[in-house]
Design goal:
single chain; 263 residues; alpha+beta; 2 domains; seven-stranded antiparallel beta sheet; globular
Length: 263
């Protein structure tokens, strides 16, 4: 019996090793292919225009899915790192720096967003005041040009609707707000990210609200001619979120130039 368990475990480890190797090799091939022009590559295969269009669509959807997954992995790393540093005392943090491998320290202590932008201090205070009125235990952070808001969240499996209005079959994981009553919490959650961006927005997206089934995902892109800048705002909230908060939050976003000084 022990021999059978050992053999089964060994087989599972070997299978996982082969699967990871194949996945890494596939990733390298896909990266090399993505650097080429797809139409030229498809023509070499002798595909007609209909086949080329179909494969280009599949390639685009798959690339979008991979980008979403990488972003989610990076977000989970940041959440893990922040949680770890919050738990440790200053003495324990010093021990961590003395004994942990350098590559591990770089992932724990790096600040990809950079130091807080001092121009956003007053805007961050206005956001903090509004959020804490409705979510007293929310966490509000200013990192670089981004202000984040978070309270009562969890990972959700979300199916994404593609540009052709079809649903992407493989769901992705997104951090979203919980509804009231979940895990015995009386108040629903909230997730927000407000990025200050110089210049003019050049993307195709427009201000709108997406239905993620478990919660709403609102996109806002307010612009200020005075500052020659705009905000990229994502606010995730459940159906029972306070309407007063949503209205005041939206109003604050579209008046952000009243809280951000000129350079």
């Amino acid at each position: 019996m022990r021999f059978f368990i050992l053999l089964s475990t060994t087989g599972l480890i070997l299978t996982m090793g082969v699967w990871m190797a194949v996945g890494q090799e596939s990733g390298r091939r896909e990266s090399s292919l993505s650097q080429k022009k797809l139409p030229e590559f498809f023509q070499k295969l002798g595909l007609d225009e209909k086949q080329q269009a179909k494969l280009a669509q599949i390639h685009e959807e798959h690339a979008l899915y991979l980008r979403n997954q990488l972003a989610i992995v990076e977000q989970h790393k940041q959440l893990r790192n922040a949680a770890l540093m919050d738990v440790l005392s200053e003495e324990q943090k010093q021990r961590l720096r003395e004994h942990a491998p350098q590559d591990y320290l770089e992932t724990i202590e790096r600040d990809p967003a950079g130091p807080p932008n001092p121009r956003l201090r007053e805007f961050e205070k206005a956001i903090r005041k509004l959020v804490l009125e409705h979510y007293p235990e929310a966490i509000i952070k200013l990192e670089g040009n981004t202000i984040s808001v978070e309270w009562n969240t969890m990972p959700f499996m979300i199916h994404t609707r593609m540009f052709n209005a079809k649903w992407w079959q493989r769901p992705g994981v997104e951090i979203g707000p919980q509804g009231a009553g979940f895990r015995n919490r009386m108040q629903s959650g909230i997730v927000g990210e407000i990025e200050f961006c110089p210049g003019q927005y050049g993307g195709m997206a427009a201000s709108q609200t997406f239905d993620k089934h478990y919660y709403k995902d609102q996109l806002m892109l307010p612009r200020s001619e005075t500052l020659d800048a705009y905000l990229n705002v994502r606010l995730k909230f459940p159906d029972d979120a306070p309407k007063e908060f949503l209205d005041r939050f939206s109003d604050l976003m579209y008046r952000f130039d009243q809280h951000v000084p000129k350079e």
